[in-house]
């Protein structure tokens, strides 16, 4: 059973969709590093959960999705990839801002926004999982 799939013409299948994901992931990496530096410099770690979410959901998850969508363009060009993209990239900023407001001010009025954004992000992950199970198939 073959475990590596390559485009016969170029040796590697690359999806433009994956490139967009990787570029967004790097933006989240820069944000996460900047936030980490700011917290370390000030010795104020109130935004630790935001830092963790930016790095894990923003940098790591988006980068892995980008790599997967680059190597498996049939998944990267699917409708589920578009659903995944928009749900994740709409949920992440709302989630990070709402969580920051709660942590910095204690204002609980934004909790519903945080909860909705978390469910949207979870839906994005479900769309990603469904996409992979439906669209990652051995090449014939």
TrEMBL record:
<feature type="transmembrane region" description="Helical">
    <location>
        <begin position="110"/>
        <end position="134"/>
    </location>
</feature>
<keyword id="KW-0472">Membrane</keyword>
<keyword id="KW-0812">Transmembrane</keyword>
<feature type="transmembrane region" description="Helical">
    <location>
        <begin position="20"/>
        <end position="41"/>
    </location>
</feature>
<protein>
    <submittedName>
        <fullName>Cytochrome-c oxidase</fullName>
    </submittedName>
</protein>
<feature type="transmembrane region" description="Helical">
    <location>
        <begin position="84"/>
        <end position="104"/>
    </location>
</feature>
<feature type="transmembrane region" description="Helical">
    <location>
        <begin position="53"/>
        <end position="72"/>
    </location>
</feature>
<keyword id="KW-1133">Transmembrane helix</keyword>
<dbReference type="InterPro" id="IPR036927">
    <property type="entry name" value="Cyt_c_oxase-like_su1_sf"/>
</dbReference>
